[in-house]
Design goal:
The protein contains 15 helices and no strands. By secondary structure, it is mainly alpha-helical.
Length: 385
């Protein structure tokens, strides 16, 4: 097996471990909190606090990675601690305890996805034959499996299976990340002075963040909406799994996102347009067939947006600041997501599925900013966008 193929497999397994936990957390952690007696407003607050903390901490931690702090070592140590904290969550009762544990987890978890993405992008740029999208596919597949398995675990063992299952997924990251220390200390060698990101790149990051954060209401209360409509835990897991079906194909066939001729702006604009349409349809509480189609459209509303933003970041982020740019995008998106998640409790109680209407203008604002950035990009970069 070639060195590049071996590295690709190791990176794919690392991302798979990270996303397996997310595949349990997003659909089922709100259900776990509701089962422990928290109200919709309390659930929104427990989901809101860690988003704020992750948004604040991500640029700092990823900035350290630019200064040659070993990202793989950080991922290994932090996820050992995260596994312990999620195990403690299984025993917790009352909102104060859940808030404290969620805050501690958020600090440690804030840079997980940005650092794994930055590691993968750097490897794809330095090793021939590595493809970011196909490596990232490991995360999509593990997320899909976790969606399906999560519903079955709850049906078999009850809601306590949610935090314990997440803890096991987080623990798996430790042996997966540890060997990747061989990639080197930092993600890239940073210059002596801090490199500014520039206003143009910030417009791109905000555009992508608008589109991605429009998924907030779905992430926070989608499962509870479907539960209220009579879907079982197993079926809710299947509904979430539909999110990933199209995403797998998208990442497989269009995964060379760091390539200079990848149509990045087109993907970003398409993702935002599909996101707006998706929320309009979901606001009408569609039946199971249309709901499944809406979930499959996640391949574009999230997947196309993600590939487009990753490609643009690789293209326009300056040397010595790419990890920080990853962290900044995570922070901007996280800040928006936090505010929307906090408001989602009120939307859920007073509007139900109608809360998706609030996500439509957000996605369209992202499209407008992406179009603006496309026309303002340097002429020399137009071949790629």
């Amino acid at each position: 097996m070639s060195a590049s193929r071996s590295l690709a497999i190791r990176l794919a397994l690392l991302i798979a471990g990270l996303f397996a936990g997310l595949g349990l957390y997003l659909p089922f952690f709100p259900v776990f909190l509701a089962g422990r007696g928290l109200s919709p407003d309390e659930i929104a607050l427990v989901l809101f606090v860690p988003i704020v903390i992750r948004a604040a901490a991500a640029p700092f931690i990823t900035g350290l990675a630019d200064r040659r702090i070993d990202p793989a070592l950080f991922l290994a140590l932090s996820h050992g601690a995260i596994a312990f904290l999620f195990a403690c969550t299984a025993l917790a009762t009352g909102m104060p305890a859940f808030l404290l544990l969620a805050a501690l987890i958020a600090v440690l978890q804030s840079a997980s996805i940005p650092l794994s993405d930055a590691l993968t992008i750097k490897a794809a740029q330095n090793f021939a034959g590595l493809n970011y999208g196909r490596i990232r596919l490991g995360g999509s597949i593990s997320f899909f499996i976790a969606n399906l398995v999560g519903g079955l675990l709850i049906a078999q063992f009850g809601i306590v299976a949610v935090p314990l299952g997440i803890a096991l997924c987080m623990l798996s990251v430790v042996p997966l990340a540890w060997p990747l220390r061989a990639l080197g200390g930092g993600i890239e060698k940073a210059p002596a002075t801090r490199v500014p990101l520039g206003a143009f790149l910030l417009v791109i990051l905000v555009a992508a963040s608008f589109i991605q954060s429009s998924h907030s209401y779905l992430y926070a209360f989608g499962s509870l909406l479907w539960k209220a409509e009579g879907y079982s835990a197993e079926i809710i897991g299947v509904i979430w799994a539909f999110n990933i079906l199209g995403e797998v194909l998208l990442f497989w066939f269009f995964g060379s996102a760091v390539g200079p001729r990848f149509p990045a702006f087109a993907f970003l604009i398409l993702g935002g347009g599909i996101a707006a349409l998706r929320w309009v349809v979901m606001a009408f509480s569609p039946g199971p067939i249309v709901l499944a189609l809406c979930q499959v459209s996640h391949a574009l509303s999230f997947g196309a947006t993600h590939l487009g933003s990753i490609a643009l970041l690789a293209r326009f982020a300056p040397e010595g600041a790419r990890s920080r740019a990853q962290g900044m995008m995570s922070a901007i998106s996280g800040g928006m997501n936090a505010l929307l998640t906090l408001g989602s409790g009120w939307l859920f109680q007073h509007t139900g599925a109608g809360g998706f209407w609030a996500m439509v203008p957000l996605a369209l604002a992202g499209v407008a900013l992406a179009v603006f950035a496309y026309w303002r990009q340097p002429q020399s970069a137009r071949d790629g966008g």
